[in-house]
Specification:
With about 750 residues, the chain is α/β, with parallel strands linked by helices. It is about 30% helix and about 25% strand. The longest helix is centred in the last third of the chain and has 19 residues.
Length: about 750
């Protein structure tokens, strides 16, 4: 029997199959989806490979497979092949997403394995041991003490025995040597939920709107029918309760559920809701802030059918779940569901494909749906379910817009308008909580010489460095490069260095200065680097009397804090002025979501939005929290300009260190595309140009943009052109293709 394998390497030339003979002793074990070790290359060095096909014979002289490593399912292999074509990458890149965490890199796989301890058990019956004690065959008091401790605590480790009996390891070893005790290697689960103690909660009575949405999705579950739903509900409308009740129904049918959340910061709150309803034993968690060992154990817990509910971020969609009953994607509008690294997959597309194959419902939930999703919903491609009221009948918060130009005219140069300052002061008096949102981390966004205009930029990337006051460092938010603070201009020698722009660090400093008695905490990328730091910050804010939470967009989505009555948006314009066709949509989403954090219980909520563009249509619709008004205007604009959902934006990236090679390869690729697509008037190809940020990590970046509907035919042509480019042997240049990327820079 011959196995067709794909070598587990990223080189484009290796994105094809190689034939290997299956040794007789492995014939019954190797299947499509097996990970194997094979001799590869001139030296015959062992390489990981994945079996993607089986056949009776080969036309070539073939070598034997060395050994079997592990098995994936044939469905996983088929999904990987589909993803490879859809997202223009190697099959092996996609398969790696479906492997247990810690086994994706062959060098690390030796280190990530089951965690075991040496547990101590009685080797003889306790009656025999007691007899030996009575007959003085065992004389030592310490021996007796240890044996009786192990009797009451079988499975204890030697260090535990030493600690609780105050006896040495040598005495334990003597009892092992004499046949009274034995040491057994025992697997221990690394459980990220081990310390979670959440009170039990019960099923809540649904409102009429919730009941209508729930019953329609339940009908799809009961009939084993694929259907895609958009649960479009205002902030606080009780979408999570619907999720919980739907999953409860799925579990009663002995099926399982995948629940995706966009931000790691959202997982603790969602997990708590699920543990309180279902208990922690049946839940598995997958996200990047877990240790690699914890992820490995959670993955195996799913694979071994010990978990019925999987909660996680984007990559949890690849969890090895059998007998799936529902997939739910919360905050479906969030950009984090789209991968920015190879494979550049969209987890919503993956979820749709999986749900279709196994005939289950896919539920997308949001208060501010992705414009493309809502467009499909009103055109009956997705079933639209609306929740127009908050579940507890609380009112949506009052939103006030503050014109910061008038603040300057009135002599206020602070980061806080007088309205926001007074509102914070009032909240502090009333012992209520405040969230301040600023979507820039750091202290100052750029540093400039006032004499010559020189801006300090990263040496690796063509982007300004950001000043971080707490570390007193300049940092690049693209490559992570750090350097000391500049005090003298490198260009003209001037000492007139000025810090421009604001970030969360500067806002925190301002708040501490103006409200010295307030308890303040900050949540951004810089404060959540350690494990569990997201959860610790949120728990402190919720339980330890913190008055003010300052943060970036991680504080915006999904959080429920009953005592938050005030939300301040410090710079509403920051996301309006980015070079991206989705700038309006993202600004509306952020402002509406952050406003939704206020007044979620019986206390009235207030939102203060600071802007230099108070008459901007997006600011106005966000104030009204009127998604449909925003949608009607934005969809008209998108249609006129032919932007998604009326086409797809396909970005072909060309990067390298040799500008001449980038230029020549870009022009060649552009001409190839023109030649192959010239007869199709629906496809618009733009000439190669440098990217807006034309250098990152010392690599020069160009791009070709195509506006067209991504059909199977276009996908096939793009894959062929990409293959041709790699066969041209542009040694110093990399090519990539991304469909509707999050970042147009």
């Amino acid at each position: 029997m011959i196995a067709e394998v794909i070598i587990n390497r990223g080189a484009k030339k290796l994105n094809r199959t190689f034939d290997y003979n299956i040794p007789e002793h492995l014939e019954d074990l190797i299947i499509v989806g097996s990970k194997v070790l094979v001799p590869f290359g001139k030296g015959g060095n062992p390489e990981e490979a994945f079996v993607v096909g089986l056949k009776e014979k080969s036309n070539y002289e073939v070598k034997d497979i060395i050994r079997l490593e592990e098995n994936l399912s044939d469905k996983q292999i088929e999904l990987a092949k589909w993803m490879s074509k859809r997202y223009f990458c190697n099959v092996s890149d996609c398969i790696r997403l479906m492997q247990a965490p810690g086994t994706k890199n062959k060098d690390k796989s030796k280190r990530i394995q089951d965690k075991t301890i040496n547990a101590v058990y009685l080797k003889k019956d306790i009656e025999e041991i007691e007899f030996d004690i009575e007959t003085k065959k065992i004389k030592s008091e310490k021996h007796i003490k240890i044996l009786r401790f192990v009797k009451d605590n079988e499975g204890a480790t030697i260090p535990e025995i030493e600690l609780f009996t105050d006896c040495s390891r040598a005495i334990v070893n003597t009892l092992i040597k004499n046949g009274y005790l034995e040491v057994v290697e025992k697997k221990v689960d690394r459980d990220p939920l081990a310390n979670k103690k959440i009170p039990k909660s019960s099923r809540l009575k649904l409102t009429d709107e919730q009941e209508n949405a729930y019953s329609k999705i339940k009908e799809s579950i009961d009939n084993n029918r694929y259907e895609q739903f958009l649960l479009f509900g205002v902030t606080g409308s009780g979408k999570t309760e619907i999720y919980l009740q739907l999953i409860e129904d799925v579990l009663t049918k002995n099926k399982k559920a995948i629940m995706l959340v966009p931000e790691i910061s959202l997982t603790p709150q969602m997990i708590e809701r699920f543990i309180s309803r279902f208990g922690k034993e049946t839940i598995a968690v997958l996200h990047s802030k877990l240790s690699i060992g914890e992820r490995y154990d959670e993955w195996n817990k799913i694979k071994e059918n010990k978990a019925n509910i999987i909660i996680g971020a984007r990559s949890a969609i690849f969890a090895p779940v059998s007998n799936l009953g529902i997939i739910i994607i919360d905050e479906e509008h969030d950009s984090s569901y789209k991968s920015e690294s190879t494979p550049k997959y969209d987890s919503k597309e993956i979820a749709k494909k999986i749900a279709k194959e196994v005939n289950i419902p896919l539920v997308l939930g949001s208060a501010t749906p992705d414009l493309k999703t809502y467009y499909k919903a009103i055109n009956n491609e997705i079933t639209l379910l609306e929740l127009t009221k908050r579940a507890n009948n609380s009112n949506l918060p009052k939103v006030e817009i503050i014109d910061m130009k008038m603040e300057l005219i009135n002599g206020n140069r602070s980061m806080l308008s007088m309205e926001l300052y007074n509102s914070i002061e009032e909240n502090l008096k009333n012992k209520y909580q405040t969230i301040l949102f600023l979507n820039r981390r750091g202290f100052s966004t750029f540093i400039m010489c006032r004499d010559c205009g020189y801006i300090v930029k990263c040496k690796n990337c063509n982007i300004s460095m950001t000043y971080h006051s707490y570390e007193n460092k300049l940092k690049c938010h693209y490559c992570g490069n750090e350097q000391n603070v500049v005090t003298t201009c490198p260009n003209c020698g001037s000492k007139k260095i000025r810090y421009f722009g604001t970030g969360t660090q500067k806002l925190e400093q301002e708040i501490l200065k103006q409200f010295p008695n307030a308890k303040t905490i900050r949540m951004d990328v810089d404060t959540v680097t350690k494990k569990n730091s997201h959860e610790e910050i949120l728990n402190k804010f919720k339980n330890e009397g913190i008055d003010i939470l300052i943060g970036t967009q991680m504080v915006v989505k999904g959080h429920h804090f009953p005592k938050v009555t005030l939300v301040g948006v410090v710079a509403a314009d920051s996301s309006l002025n980015i070079d991206d066709y989705r700038a309006n949509e993202r600004t509306f989403q952020i402002l509406t979501q952050v406003a939704g954090r206020a007044g979620r219980e019986n206390l009235p909520g207030k939102v203060v939005v600071q802007t230099y563009n108070p008459d901007n249509f997006i600011i106005q619709t966000a104030q009204k929290q009127n998604y449909k008004m925003f949608y009607d205007t934005e969809i008209t604009l998108r249609k006129q300009l032919k932007y998604p959902p009326f086409c797809d934006i396909i970005v072909i990236g060309v990067s390298g260190k040799d500008l001449n090679e980038i230029n020549s390869s870009s022009q060649f690729m552009y001409q190839e595309l023109v030649n192959k697509l010239k007869q199709n008037e629906e496809i618009k190809i733009f000439k190669p140009m440098p990217c807006p940020i034309d250098k990152i990590q010392n690599r020069i970046r160009w791009r070709i943009i195509i506006k067209a509907k991504m059909t199977d035919e276009l996908n096939e042509i793009l894959n062929l052109v990409l293959k041709d480019m790699y066969e041209k042997e542009y040694k110093n240049t990399k090519f990539s293709i991304d469909i509707n990327p999050n970042n147009m820079t």
